[in-house]
Amino acid sequence: MLVIGAIFVDVKGFAQNKYMPLERNVGDVQVVAGGVCRNVAENLSMLGHEAKFVSMVDDNGMGAQVRDDLKRLGVNVEHVISAPGGMGMWLAILDENGNLAGSISRQPDFSALEAYLKQNGDAIVAATDGLALEFDMNAEISGMVMALAKKHNKPVYTIVGNMGVILQHPEYLHDVACFICNEMEAGRLFREDLTAATPEETLKTLQKGSVLVGIPSMVVTMGPRGAVYVDNTTGEFGFCPPMDVDVVDTTGAGDAFFTAAVATLMRGAPLSQAVQEGTRLAARTLRVAGSCARD
User: Fold this and answer.
1) Which CATH number characterizes residue 119's domain?
2) What is the mean pLDDT of the chain?
3) Closest Cα partner for 7 from 29, 39, 47, 49?
4) How many angstroms separate the CA atoms of 125 and 50, rounded?
5) Which domain holds residue 73?
6) Is 294 a member of any domain?
7) Strands of 88-94's sheet, edge to edge?
């Protein structure tokens, strides 16, 4: 499977005691490689699937280390290029329960990746069986990849980072095989606050909103409240409850959910089974301090 997206350096602070936003908090600080699609590529490899990653790293020692680590984990890094400003940075604070208390991200400079895909994208997309695409790099890359996937009849599964491109170009979602996001991202797309909605209420919004926007298949994850889904091509819809786990770190759980769900859909399984598999891998990720559930 082809994975196209950004690499970030994640700087994560874990509060030892009750997190106080305006105070100095004692805890632990970790610096790890991250980014939603970098996590997806690693998780795919962990599950035994071929993951061919199209991305960028910085043109320095840290970038080389990130690429070498991905290769060691079994990810195909043939199309991971080096460029100035190629990696982003994500600063995250997690409270005493492992929940995200605040974050700031710095986006990479995507110009080198855009040029690389203009030159090589047609051959790269033609050679794959399916794509996982991070929409929020820039509109030019998203539009280019969606057009190439349509040209070569390849399914595209989309994951988001900040909803910037999707809100500007919701028409891109008309051609996706499945769109997976959380309730805050779905709320921005459907212009409705879903953060306090029940699963039943979220499912009703999803069923109505996905038809209005023209999305063939969509999943909305709701953290500890589970996930809802709808497949407008088959008529399938429903709710998947969460698994009971002791949470260590919530970051990366959504990426794990996406990975397992997409891998299941690629096998031809129904959306309900894909959501169940996504829930299982997300639960594994919640139990460990890191963005992936690799043993």
Assistant:
1) 3.40.1190.20
2) 92
3) 39
4) 15
5) 2-286
6) no
7) 27-34, 8-15, 88-94, 100-106
